[in-house]
Design goal:
Layout lengths: L1 H24 L9 E7 L11 E6 L5 E4 L5 H9 L16 H9 E5 L9 H6 L6 E6 H10 L21 E6 L5 E2 L6 E8 L4 E9 L2 E6 L5 H4 L3 H14 L3 E7 L17 H15 L4 H4 L4 E5 L11 H11 L6 E3 L7 E2 L1
Parallel strand pairs: 3-4, 4-5, 5-6, 10-11, 11-12, 12-13
Antiparallel strand pairs: 1-2, 1-14, 2-3, 7-8, 8-9, 9-10
Helix pairs in contact: 2-3, 7-8, 8-10
The protein binds zinc ion (ZN) (2 copies).
One zinc ion binds next to loops.
């Protein structure tokens, strides 16, 4: 009996120590989640069934937006198999499968970071079966989608501008950098920022819902390589949100492992550059203690490019390199297609 008491006491001590360890570890995890994200496509190429697209909704809401739309259907299918849509209830008499209901009813808008094919392929291919909604992006992105995709040459014109007869399924919304606007059909707002992606303009989106924020980057090179200050501008804008723990997560790309030479980046990041860019943010958040300024911040690592080479999988290599350099104690997440994330 006595021995049992001691055992149970020891269990309590271990339990309390465990709690305390968890408490000190991050400034973020103990809060209740504000956002849900379901990645529909996570790689930066090669996998035509799994390229850049992330669903996002305020937690508890069924109003999703798609951040980029490289892969839609294959990702929704995987999410259904993994039972990731906790908040969606399919009526038992529904003629549509969950994928169709998501496309036609619950995905309220597309936010496209740039018009490269790996960010819009799913949008084009699914458009005949899609529901009516807005496509939001900076002017150059919208113009490229209008002029080079939905133009009756590459694909029918499902837009409400441009070449020939307009099917008007999609309404184009041009976003002005730095200007915050509501996203139709949702309670979310977006503030866009320009990004330098080699000789191409890409963009980032800051999403707000009820005082909480998520930051999504399209493809981007590091400022130092791109001879730009676009990343710096984004970091400056969000630094106060990090300081007040309102920024719940960042989606940022790492396309290649560190072996890649700087002159071969083509407007992308490597683990080394990801950490350099995050340390710019850390210094803006707390110049006295940059080393602890981002502790526990969730960073979803997007756009890793798979390769044909029979080697260690590139995503494992990238994650290993990120953690070797992770003096900021950021919480890196390598997303899986269809697997629910909360922030
Ligand atoms: Zn790109
Ligand atoms: Zn891309």
């Amino acid at each position: 009996m006595k021995r049992q008491n001691m055992l149970s006491q020891m269990c309590w001590v271990v339990f309390v120590l465990f709690l305390m360890a968890g408490w000190g570890q991050t400034t973020y995890s103990e809060e209740s989640a504000k956002f849900v994200s379901i990645p529909l496509g996570v790689t930066g190429g090669l996998r035509e069934d799994n390229i850049s697209s992330y669903l996002l909704a305020p937690k508890g809401s069924t109003d999703f937006i798609a951040l980029d739309a490289g892969t839609l259907f294959a990702g929704l299918r995987q999410a259904r198999i993994l039972e990731s849509f906790e908040e969606i209830e399919l009526p038992p008499d529904s003629e549509l499968m969950l994928e169709g209901v998501m496309m036609q009813q619950y995905i309220k808008a597309y936010l496209i970071s740039h018009a490269h094919i790996d960010h819009v392929a799913g949008l084009v291919l699914n458009s005949p079966d899609d529901g009516k909604k807005d496509i939001l992006g900076i002017a150059s992105t919208i113009d490229n989608i209008r002029d080079h995709l939905f133009n009756w040459k590459v694909w029918p014109n499902f837009g409400d501008e441009g070449e020939g007869f307009q099917l008007k399924k999609y309404h184009y919304v041009r976003l002005t950098p730095g200007e915050t606007v509501p996203i139709n059909g949702t309670s979310m707002k977006v503030t866009p920022f320009l990004l330098s992606h080699s000789n191409y303009t890409s963009s980032a989106f800051l999403i707000e819902a009820d005082g909480a924020y998520m930051l999504y980057f399209g493809d981007t090179g590091p400022d130092e390589v791109e001879k730009s200050d676009y990343m710096q501008q984004v970091w400056t804008y969000v630094a106060p949100l990090v300081r007040h723990q309102q920024l719940k997560g960042i989606f940022l790309e790492v396309s290649y492992p560190d072996e890649r030479a700087d002159n071969q980046l083509f407007g992308h990041l490597t683990p080394k550059w990801m950490l350099k860019e995050l340390s710019v943010l850390a210094n803006l958040v707390d110049s006295q203690h940059p080393e602890t300024a981002l502790r526990g911040l969730k960073v979803v690592v997007t756009h890793i490019k798979p390769s044909f080479v029979r080697d260690l999988p590139v995503d494992e290599k990238v994650l290993k390199q990120l953690y070797e350099l992770n003096t900021l104690n950021v919480h890196f997440i390598i997303p899986e297609q269809g697997e629910r994330l909360e922030f």
